[in-house]
Design goal:
single chain, 825 residues, alpha/beta, Rossmann fold, 2 domains, ten-stranded mixed beta sheet, 34 helices, 15% strand, binds ligand 26V, pyridoxal phosphate binding, carbohydrate metabolism, pyridoxal phosphate
Length: 825
């Protein structure tokens, strides 16, 4: 089969116009010349989707024919962002489409703004999944992303008097041009009910599960377009509906309204994305959501396999299954897929226990994304028993074999070890430890940055590492340079195109050629002129979104990520308050003007996180309107931070704030995006910051604060935050200021909870311990910025040395070490 990538790239401007006009006229029933951006956005997207669907079909045929192994990426979250501009770039159709639209009187960049973000995720974990899908298609691997078709993605954020307000995300209000519904691949999912032990003719006993209820899963496919490649894969999102067959009875018995109630109840399962990155212990709906998703995906994986290779009941096909199917669990959220595959193989396909277990061990791998104890999932045994009785009995048997064989072999008759490693946490309310099930089953378990993977081994699962010394491994995260440079920063992309004689967006290591230009005055000037233009563009956006006027000559200092104590937005805030104090004391203070830019959503139930947003907004209000400091300081909290807003902020950033407590941020990926776009990092030795520092060298990053070992040592000797409050006059003055009504006129005490979290609250994330070191690093940074050629050199080297953090490299690591795929093109 000949390559299709060049074929797509040769689609002419005239042909694109024609395709757009076709959809305007026949799909949307619009006048050709209608002055309506939404209509043109939709028509352009539909026209592009036609081209994409053809490639999708070709890809499927090619992958089937070559019988390559396929990876199934199971994730409850995907933060896809907008699709139009990215798909155009990946197909090489951006320029021609831009020209076509121009003849129709529209700016393509303008139209792209019309699309809603697909915000089916919370943060890093969901965006990582989206980057991985991009890389898999770009590298011509066969991959299926599985996810949930949430009716509402992550909530929309606005501020009312500085306080976060949440409203529902309506990404599909009028339908999405990118989805294809596939009713023929619907699934029926059993749950609740009881188990009957049925004696078999051969004397054995078979467990038969009589479900109390069934749900229907309807798949929607979003095509995933590779960059300059032959491949279009799919992201398959499951929507939950009531199972009509099941409800037929209720309808027949005349209870028409009751039957509709069941529809509504079923639809809640995929209604909304859970907005916490914390474990929702005991929330039955969340548990059902996870199971529904896992069952649909596993059934679909099996159906696709059988469709290609024949019935799994044939023993000869079990081996083939392991050779053709890999399943990656994105955190523990899809863990039930393990039990569902076991159940299906044993109960429905007559596979015996040992073979079913061997298959699961070969097929599954698990990625850990956090060490924070509150995010580690545990589900009560009672809930498990009620919703999934058959799955629980399988889990018990896995546990028995694990404890009696594996654990007992290494630690004979050791009850303490059995209790520590058991899949069940005993106690007042016994719980299933989801991560333990993942580790026991998976053939590989990976962390997402080297330090994180080391800590997974040393602190989280040391006994598992002893049991299986090759199981725990590392795959450092990455980001796709297509969305995070080529598409979002066209000015810099053009400069790179004309400087580097290669497709750097595919081979990001080629950016290292810029090293030789880092000292070149002419190149520095070009590079910084682009940064300046991007800053001017962001200045306008800031004005539009907040009404605040900022100067592009100031340092643009950016912290964009979910709001969490461990990420320490409040350390940033404390330093801002300190700078403000210094400026009031000495208005002539010699410093480069600085704009601190925040973007962050707080989980709706996370009280202190919301108070930090409120405090930042209140401090911003005061500072931004204080003429005494002569615009040397501005603070901007941009509302509704999301992928499409990140795409505007990142190209304009001078400074990247990556200031989590060492040992708490598994990797971070915003750190990579910002550095790639020429921002210099101020950060702790945490997550991927460590590897970024290794790549750019100590001269091109501002590292401060406690190391992981120092944090541990402080904890061991009982960290006392009061000591810093008492001994550091600056800290004391800033914290005491929060108790007054200076920032909240007439309402003293409104910001005191933040001070209290540092003192009475014990400062769990060591903000006070790191404050001075952070302030010192900020001072050094300010000095460096005021030497323009030194700063330009640092910025260029950051862009030049980010090759390692291409998500293509991450995917190749997974392929080599975990999935063992071969390309199909
Ligand atoms: C946890 C939970 C718990 C149950 C309810 C829903 C929910 C949703 C998200 C999470 C996520 C916790 C893990 C996470 O997002 N980790 C982040 O993963 C990034 C990609 O590997 C990594 O860069 C970040 O450092 C890490 O915090």
């Amino acid at each position: 089969q000949s390559s299709t990538k060049n074929k797509t790239q040769s689609i002419t401007v005239a042909e694109i116009s024609q395709r757009i006009e076709h959809h305007l006229k026949f799909t949307l029933d619009e006048q050709i010349n209608v002055d309506q951006k939404p209509a043109y956005w939709r028509a352009t997207s539909l026209a592009l989707n036609d081209i994409i669907v053809e490639k999708l079909q070709n890809t499927k045929a090619r992958q089937q024919q070559s019988e390559v192994k396929s990876v199934n990426y199971l994730s409850l979250e995907y933060l896809m962002g907008r699709l139009l501009s990215n798909n155009l770039h990946n197909l090489g159709l951006y320029t021609n489409t831009e020209k076509a639209l121009k003849t129709m009187g529209f700016e393509l960049a303008d139209l792209c703004e019309q699309g809603a973000d697909l915000a089916l995720g919370n943060g890093g974990l969901g965006r990582l999944a989206a980057c991985f899908l991009d890389s898999l298609a770009t590298l011509d691997y066969s991959a299926m992303g599985y996810g949930v078709h949430y009716q509402h993605g992550l909530f929309k954020q606005s501020f009312a008097d500085g306080q976060q307000i949440e409203t529902p995300d309506m990404w599909r209000e009028f339908g999405s041009p990118w989805e294809i519904c596939r009713p023929e691949s619907s699934q029926t999912i059993p749950l609740y009910g009881h188990i009957e032990e049925v004696a078999q003719a051969n004397g054995t006993i078979k467990s038969v599960w009589h479900a109390g209820k069934t749900l229907k899963g309807v798949p929607w496919d979003v095509p995933i377009v590779g960059y300059n490649s032959d491949t279009v894969n799919a992201l398959r999102l499951w929507e939950c509906r009531a199972d009509n067959a099941f409800d037929w009875d209720t309808f027949n018995h005349g209870d028409y309204l009751q039957a509709h109630q069941q529809q509504v109840a079923a639809e809640t399962v995929s209604k909304v994305l859970y907005p916490n990155d914390e474990h929702e212990a005991g929330k039955e709906l969340r548990f059902v959501q996870q199971y529904f998703f896992c069952a649909c995906s596993v059934q679909d994986i099996i159906a696709r396999f059988e469709n290609q290779y024949g019935a799994l009941a044939e023993q000869s096909h079990w081996q083939t299954f392991c050779e053709k199917v890999a399943i990656q669990l994105n955190d523990t959220h899809p863990t039930i897929a393990i039990l569902e595959l076991m159940r299906t193989l044993i109960d429905n396909h007559n596979v015996d226990w040992d073979n079913a277990w061997a298959i699961c061990q070969k097929v599954f791998a698990y990625t850990n994304h956090t060490l924070l104890p509150e995010a580690l999932e545990k589900w009560s045994v009672a809930l498990f028993q009620r919703v999934l009785p058959r799955h629980l009995s399988i889990l018990y048997r896995i546990n028995e074999a694990f404890l009696n064989d594996d654990v007992n072999a290494l630690w004979p008759n050791n009850d303490d070890m059995r209790a520590r490693l058991s899949l069940i946490e005993e106690g007042h309310e016994p719980k299933v430890r989801m991560a333990h099930l993942c580790v026991v089953t998976a053939h590989r378990v990976n962390g997402v940055a080297q330090i994180h993977s080391d800590l997974v081994k040393q602190d989280l699962f040391p006994e598992f590492d002893q049991l299986w010394p090759t199981k725990l491994t590392n795959v450092t995260n990455g980001i796709t340079p297509r969305r995070w440079l080529k598409a979002c920063n066209p000015l810099l992309a053009n400069l790179l195109d004309s400087t580097i004689n290669a497709d750097w967006a595919k081979d990001l290591n080629r950016l290292s050629e810029l090293k030789h230009l880092a000292d070149n005055a002419d190149f520095q000037q070009q590079f910084m002129a682009i940064k300046q233009q991007n800053k001017i563009a962001l200045t306008k956006e800031i004005k539009k979104l907040t009404g605040i006027t900022v100067s592009p000559d100031a340092i643009f200092d950016v912290q964009i990520k979910r709001l969490h104590e461990y990420k320490r937005q409040h350390l940033n805030l404390l330093h801002i308050i300190s700078l403000y104090r210094q400026l009031l004391a000495n208005p002539e203070l010699d410093m480069q003007p600085r704009v601190f830019i925040f973007g962050a959503k707080a989980a709706p139930g996370y009280k202190l996180a919301k108070e930090i947003i409120y405090a930042t907004n209140k401090v911003a209000e005061k500072i931004n309107n204080d003429i005494r400091i002569q615009d040397k300081l501005k603070v901007v909290f941009l509302p509704n931070y999301r992928v499409s807003l990140a795409e505007k902020i990142i190209p304009a950033a001078d400074v990247s704030e990556q200031i989590s407590t060492a040992g708490k941020e598994a990797s971070g990926t915003g750190n990579m995006k910002l550095a790639l776009n020429g921002a210099v990092t101020i950060g702790t030795l945490d997550g991927a910051n460590i590897e970024i520092a290794e790549e750019v060298g100590d001269d091109n990053i501002f590292i401060f604060g406690l190391t992981v070992d120092e944090v541990k040592a402080l904890d061991a000797q009982d960290y006392n935050s009061y000591q810093y409050y008492q001994n550091n006059a600056e800290i004391r003055a800033c914290l005491d200021w929060l108790d007054t009504d200076y920032f909240t006129p007439g309402n003293p005490g409104e910001l005191s909870s933040i001070k209290e979290s540092f003192l009475a609250g014990g400062d769990p994330y060591k903000v006070l311990a790191d404050f001075q070191s952070y302030a010192d690093a900020q001072l050094a940074l300010d000095k460096a910025y005021r030497n323009p050629s030194q700063w330009a050199k640092m910025a260029i080297l950051n862009t030049a040395l980010m090759g390692k953090f291409n998500s293509d490299r991450s995917i190749e690591d997974y392929v080599q070490n975990i999935w063992h795929l071969t390309v199909s093109k």
